[in-house]
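WARN retry 2 of 3 for item q-0093 after timeout on previous attempt; input resubmitted unchanged.
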Amino acid sequence: MKTLTLAELATVTGGELHGDATATVTMVAPMDKAQQGHVTFLSNPKYAKHLAECQATVVMVKAAQLEQCQGNALVVDDPYVAFAKVAQALDTTPKAAVGIAPSAVIDPSAKLGENVSIGANAVIEEGVELGDNVVIGAGCFIGKQAKIGANTQLWANVSIYHNVELGTDCLVQSNTVIGSDGFGYANDKGEWIKIPQLGSVRVGNRVEIGGCTTIDRGALEDTVIADNVILDNQMQIAHNVEIGYGTAMAGGTIVAGSTKIGKYCIIGGASVINGHIEIADGVTITGMGMVMRSIDEKGIYSSGIPLQTNKEWRKTATRVHRIDEMNKRLKAVEKQLEEHSNS
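OK item q-0093 returned
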């Protein structure tokens, strides 16, 4: 358990402390459950009514809510960002490995930087380069000529195929596969002929990838994940996809091959994105979006149908099936009105 004084919290967040600088906290908690020794935050103004009853040792708020605080307060520009910084400072998550396990299999040609850790039964193949402070969890596989930048951590059972490159300060969760073959086949009179995937995958710096996600290598050129991208769990990123700087994609999303996603996009969970299209910078796609065509302008796009009762959904589905019929009838009425007005 880590302990921070409120003075240290002010340093971590860059905030302005109002109260006892020597008081201490050991964890972050929701406002309605926080007790002494906890730090909490107010990011949604509608919950400001709970400030008077809050039992936390300190509350992180914007300046507008300071007068409503009954105890210690830390005034910050963005309480949610401050929460993230404090959570990092108090984080006690262990590393995926410490030191080099005797059962790790490391090819003599592999280049290991300073302070590298490799867990039990991990395999490091020929020509691999691991930067300083890299952590490779138990059971990981790092294929030939792969490169992993400084301070990057892989949790257990991650597979990194040959020639894949990961940048610095990345985090990859368990069971993710990076560099597996893209879905490339030619059909010769009903027989599938595999097309060797000759490209690779290039992952930038400060990228985080969730568990059980698959990123395929390119067919001829590389699949590219830019810096500062975050990818959730159980995603499929197909061959030759490019994802731009700062984009965030939620779990279960599927991106088909050769699609380019711009910078600072937000893709909701369970979305499906067609291949060979482009999505502009700053696009938000809400959950269960089905993107069939390129998106040229920044904005919010939706296509998933919100949940209804079964009775309502049946009515909606029936109406959808009748759209063509209704459209023909509408056009017929419009034609009659036009003929009437011209007579």
